[in-house]
Request: fold
Amino acid sequence: EVQLVQSGAEVKKPGESLKISCKGSGYSFTSYWIGWVRQMPGKGLEWMGIIYPGDSDTRYSPSFQGQVTISADKSISTAYLQWSSLKASDTAMYYCAKAGTTVRDAFDIWGQGTMVTVSS
Amino acid sequence: SYVLTQPPSVSVAPGKTARITCGGNNIGSKSVHWYQQKPGQAPVLVIYYDSDRPSGIPERFSGSNSGNTATLTISRVEAGDEADYYCQVWDSSSDVVFGGGTKLTVL
Reply:
């Protein structure tokens, strides 16, 4: 079964750093793009960025460029999303999603989501 | 940057047909994907490349794309179809773009 399993919910303070993970299984992790999507409470889906684990080619939405870092460790089939200094406005659900072999492909498998709460 | 516009809400009676639109400049030249998201759940792909259905998605779900509008059509709507629906494209200047989402209410 193809699946993405994300790390658990996080509660952090403003200014703290954070790295959340997304582990793929049941498919060739290095051959498919993985994207990250933010959903703020009660709001829609926002694309943050996408990575090709095979060669770590990474693209960011202009809205998130410089705000987060996307990476992948193909040895353990895991993608990451990290912040160096969280803000209260980063409070949201974050989803990883598997796309196809090209960035034009749909996100056919989604992780269960990681809720990040940033509060003092 | 490329913008996708969806109506905030659509209402339909059970058994009728729901049509959810996604507007964008010359969207007919792009490939459109559609996702369904129920409360408290992750999104699920329901239509890809304009009109293809993933395995497990009922035939009641169909898609079309032409000109400046793509449409997700849900025939014989059921109570279980009540959800938020999002369109998505890939654009050469914006990469991945999501529409703002449409809340489908089954009356």
Q: What stands out?
A: The mean pLDDT of chain A is 97. Residues 6 and 22 of chain A are 4 Å apart (CA to CA). The interface with chain B takes residues 35, 37, 44-47, 50, 59, 61-62, 95, 97, 103-108, 110-113 of chain A (CB under 8 Å).
